[in-house]
Design goal:
- It is a single chain.
- It is built from five helices and two strands.
- The chain is mostly helical.
- Strands 1-2 form a two-stranded antiparallel ribbon.
- A hairpin with a 3-residue loop joins strand 1 and strand 2.
Length: 222
């Protein structure tokens, strides 16, 4: 009997010690989990929110910088491709506008002097022949000279109008990329998960006033 009691005492002490160890281990694990959760919360608190104001300022200072801030790298080739095409168009139209403007002014001056002096010699390598490759301008009749002068004027006007329109397009591209950067910065932290769903299904219900009725049930989960 004494041996049995002694055995029970030993077992009870062993169980108690084991329970203490388990409790200690559980407490340590809980403390580690608590510390980990606190670290995660602190890390979340230290993360600076995505700023639409910064995205707008970056886009205003340098086109495309706002898209880089929003991590939308794929928009840069589109943006700079449009900017490059517009700059090329402005340069090409400006160059031709200057040529036709100079040709129109010089040819108009030549016709004025020709009226004053019918024996005025035809100039060598005139500027208008650089834009008119047909040749024979020297032998034009009065009507052909007027038509050619009008043609030079129209060309000059068209190139100037196209150049000015491309300047407007350039301003539009600049404004659009600023708006794009600002709008997408607002939606940067917006999340859509699987919990967002819309279900529509038929349903029937009864009311004392109308009796049995059939309708649709709309369920929105978010």
């Amino acid at each position: 009997m004494r041996k049995l009691l002694l055995l029970l005492v030993v077992l009870w002490q062993f169980t108690a010690l084991r329970a203490v160890d388990v409790y200690r281990d559980t407490t340590q694990v809980q403390q580690q989990l608590t510390d980990t959760l606190l670290d995660v919360e602190v890390a979340k608190a230290n993360v600076k929110p995505h700023s639409p104001h910064k995205a707008t300022i970056y886009a205003m200072v340098l086109p495309g910088a706002g898209q880089i801030y929003n991590r939308q790298w794929w928009k840069l080739p589109i943006l700079y491709g449009g900017v490059g095409a517009t700059v090329y168009g402005i340069s090409w139209n400006s160059r031709n506008y200057k040529k036709y403007k100079s040709a129109y002014i010089d040819y108009s001056h030549y016709l004025e002097e020709k009226v004053k002096n019918p024996e005025l010699p035809y100039p060598e390598n005139p500027s208008w022949e650089k834009v008119y490759l047909g040749g024979g301008v020297e032998d034009f009749s009065s009507q052909q000279q007027a038509n050619f002068q009008t043609q030079l004027k129209n060309k000059k006007t068209n190139f100037k109008r196209n150049r000015d329109l491309l300047y407007i397009v350039m301003g539009g591209i600049y404004a659009i990329q600023i708006i794009d950067a600002c709008v997408f910065a607002h939606f940067y932290d917006f999340e859509i998960n699987e919990d967002l769903s819309l279900n529509i299904q038929p349903d029937s219900f009864y009311t004392p006033a109308a009796g049995g009725m059939v309708g649709l049930t709309l369920t929105l989960n978010f």
